[in-house]
Every structure is written in structure tokens, then in C-alpha cells.
Amino acid sequence: MSLAVCFSLLFTAVTFSPVLGPWTRALTAPWSERSGGTLVVLAGDATSDRLLGLTSYWRTVYAVFEWRRGSYRAILFSGGEGIPEAMRDFAVAQGVPANAIALDTRSFTTRDSALNAGALLRNSPTPWILVTSDYHSRRAWMAFHKAGVNVEAHPAPDAGKRINSLLSRWPVFIDLTRETVKYAWYRLRGWT
What is the domain partition of the chain in residue ranges? Predict the structure, then answer.
């Protein structure tokens, strides 16, 4: 099969077929409707020092929505240095009390966040509700449970919403491909 035919098939599948929806759902953790306790929000990308990238921004926005909707008492923002602070600053600007926010700035991977969360959440109100992008939530939820941190997943609608725009379908395809490889790597390493 020629390269042009392969590319045409891939282009058609990604741009016009419904394949991205089921793929996103396969990577999404079981949804919890519980509220209260502590939101555990995982950082995503950053555009530059102390500026939120798209995934970090939407995860933070969703955490603020949840804070306003639920009866939460605390939020833990977890990620590499600089991103959790930017997430906190955004949340505070949206009305979340600064004294309700804790930061984990030592976690540079999902596994790091899972391993560090136990000590950081020890005195935090339960239930612990994990907020991350829908396509990242299954791996994160499994990594937290493997690390002994009993979180409930509350996936932020990310890829599931972006696939509704033809212009966003290719970035979603890239995100799903990357996440599928990471999911397989975590499974091979025994981290989920």
C-alpha cells in the first residue's frame, strides 16, 4: 500500500470518523459523582515559566467549577515546579480561598504525583477526588491506586469536547496516541 493511500486513510479516520470518541472513553476512568473532601488536580503542560498550557488551564478551570459546585474543603495542585503555583494563582483569582490550596511541586510525572500524594493528603478531608483530563484519567487513577492512594476519578471533559471541532481532531489524535503509549508503558512497568 502506498504512503499516499495510508495517509489518506489516516486523514479520513481521524478527521471524519467517530473513532476518537470511543478511544477517549477507553482511556477515561470510571466517573465518580461524589463531592466534598479534597480535589487532587494534576498539572498538564505549560507554555513557559508560570504560564498554564492548554491542558493545565482546562484542568484548573474544571477544578474551579467543581469547587463552586461541590462542598469541597481543600485542593491539591500537583505537578512540576511553576505549574502548580500558576494553577493556584488562577484558582485564587476565580474565588477559591488561598488557604484551602496545597501544592506539590516535586512531581514531574503522573507516577510522581501518585507517590507523593499519600503524604500530602494524609490530613486532608476525604473523599479525595482526582481531576485530570478525560483521556489521562484512567492511567492516573490506576497509578494512584497502585501507590495506595484511594482517589475517586472525576475526569475533566477535554478530548471528549475537543473532538467536536474538525480543527481540534488532529491535536486530540496526537494526545490520545501519546497517552496510549504512556498507558502501555505504565502497565509494562507495573505502575498501574
Answer: 28-158
Nearest CA-CA partner of 60 in 84, 80, 25: 84
CB 155 within 8 A of CB 59: no
Q: Cβ(38)–Cβ(1) under 8 Å?
A: no
| Distance separating alpha carbons of residues 92 and 14, to the nearest angstrom | 38
Task: Enumerate residues 6+ apart whose C-beta is below 8 A from 130.
Answer: 29, 40, 42, 137, 140, 141, 144, 151, 152, 153, 154
Kindly indicate the confidence band of residue 5, based on its pLDDT and cuts at 50, 70 and 90: confident
Residue whose C-alpha is closest to residue 133's, from 58, 46, 50: 58
77-89 average pLDDT score: 92
Residue 141 is placed in which grid cell?
A: 487513577
For residue 104, give the 3-state DSSP assignment. strand
Q: How far apart are CA 19 and CA 2, in angstroms?
A: 23
pLDDT in tens, 136-181: 999 999 999 999 999 999 999 999 999 999 899 999 999 999 999 9
Q: What is the mean pLDDT of the chain?
A: 92
CA distance 65 to 72: 11
- Which CATH number is 28-158's, of 3.40.50.720, 3.40.190.10, 3.40.50.620, 3.90.1150.10? 3.40.50.620
